[in-house]
Design a protein that fits this description.
Elements (H helix, E strand, L loop, with lengths): L6 H11 L4 H8 L3 H9 L6 H11 L3 H5 L6 H16 L11 H16 L3 H20 L5 H20 L3 H15 L5 H18 L2 H18 L3 H21 L3 H15 L6 E3 L2 E3 L1 H14 L3 H13 L7 H17 L3 H14 L1 H6 L1 H13 L5 H9 L5
Antiparallel strand pairs: 1-2
Helix pairs in contact: 1-3, 1-4, 2-3, 2-4, 6-8, 7-8, 7-9, 8-9, 9-10, 9-11, 10-11, 11-12, 11-13, 12-13, 13-14, 13-15, 14-15, 15-16, 15-17, 16-17, 17-18, 17-20, 18-20, 20-21
């Protein structure tokens, strides 16, 4: 992998290109001059809310600051173009319909690749599969289940676009997911689409707007009167999205309100459940609470909460969630000056979810700080930095 700049380096380049001094940018972003200086040189991590504030001050997207640290850039560019084409011609699939049994098999395969964070492998099959699933739905005579499958596969496509830093593609995919969900008259399908729509605002750093999307979706779902385990999964997942948005918006009251509702719903389930690409239960709710402590400036509480989780991750969680747990543990430990602990947590993240850890903005930020503070002297850090594209 070629060396690619991380957030701090990109901030410095963009700031200088616009002729803006550090003091002015820090003032407009609402952070201290010292903090910005440390972010640029790599001794402090750029958190999502700070990146959002700086992106707004520089008039760029958060994706522009994070950059695109991907494996196989030429292949990925081709595959992403193929996916864009498939999403663009959503009513004009070129592929043939699949038999019901084959359709279920392919959807299960895509969902597994997503949960296992095998993004490149998922990207390779998505363009064709989108066409096949859509063709099957169009031949179904308006069958709600068939259109629900279309909404689900667009959910997988959103995960790829989101993780690979393609916000415009993610926006287009969400609109297609809503289109498919509206063919089903199924509140679960619409809730899943709303979860991803709020995610596009989260990625852009527009946390207040994302919270409005979540609140609207929760009200609509509750009015639909759905019940059972599916209600807990979909409504609970929307509240977890609200936890992220509210904590990054530094709204402790809203964060706690969403957490309280999420915990109440999680306790209705026997364990963590994966439905329609949404994971919800007691274990995943704990992971979101841990991350919220970090966003609200309480890394010591996050580190304390992580102690029993890191050695015994909640049963039933897939690699995408366990990997994110270790990334958040690394963030908490870095913030509490436990550098060795942060490094060990990142190693665990790489072992569980390597593709996600290589490209996730926060794992790269933590790794960049560790790499600089240790003066590149530790072989394991050097290896992880190479895998993340922080050094050639």
């Amino acid at each position: 992998m070629e060396s690619t700049p991380a957030a701090g380096e990109n901030i410095a380049v963009l700031r200088k290109a616009r002729g803006i001094g550090q003091e002015r940018l820090a003032r407009e972003a609402g952070i201290s001059y010292s903090y910005l200086s440390k972010i640029e040189v790599g001794t402090r991590a750029a958190t999502p809310p700070v990146v959002a504030a700086i992106a707004k001050a520089l008039h760029v997207t958060t994706a522009r600051i994070y950059g695109q640290p991907f494996l196989g850039p030429s292949e990925q560019a081709d595959l992403l173009n193929d996916l864009r084409g498939a999403v663009r011609r959503h009513t004009l699939p070129k592929e043939d319909a699949l038999s019901p049994s084959r359709l279920r098999e392919e959807l299960k395969r895509a969902a597994t690749l997503r949960a296992d964070t095998e993004y490149l492998e998922l990207l390779r099959i998505l363009p064709r599969l989108l066409g096949q699933v859509t063709a099957s739905a169009m031949d179904s005579g308006g069958d709600a289940t068939a259109w629900g499958y279309v909404a689900d596969i667009y959910g997988c496509a959103y995960a790829v676009a989101h993780r690979l830093g393609q916000p415009d593609l993610a926006d287009m995919i969400v609109s297609r997911q809503f289109w498919a969900a509206q063919q089903t008259w199924n509140p679960q399908a619409e809730a899943g689409a709303a979860w991803n729509e709020a995610g596009t605002f989260q990625s852009a750093g527009q946390y207040d707007d994302g919270l409005e999307i979540v609140e609207r979706a929760i009200s609509k779902y509750e009015a639909a009167g759905a019940g059972g385990a599916e209600r807990a999964v979909h409504l609970g997942s929307l509240h977890l999205r609200g936890v992220v948005l509210a904590s990054r918006h530094k709204d402790a009251n809203a964060t706690n309100a969403h957490l309280e509702r999420a915990w109440a719903l999680a306790e209705q389930l026997p364990g963590d459940v994966l439905q329609h690409n949404l994971t919800f239960g007691v274990g995943n709710t704990a992971l979101y609470e841990l991350a919220a402590h970090i966003e609200l400036g309480k890394p010591d509480q996050a580190a304390e909460m992580s102690a029993p989780l890191i050695d015994n991750p909640p049963a039933g969680l897939k690699p995408n969630r366990v990997g994110r747990l270790f990334i958040d543990v690394a963030r908490a430990r870095l913030a509490t000056k436990d550098l060795d602990g942060a490094e060990n947590a990142l190693k665990r993240a790489f072992s569980v979810a390597p593709q996600m850890t290589e490209i996730h903005p926060m794992s790269r930020e933590v790794l960049r700080v560790l790499f600089i503070l240790h003066q590149r002297s530790k072989p394991d850090l050097m290896e992880m930095a190479k895998r993340a594209g922080l050094t050639a």
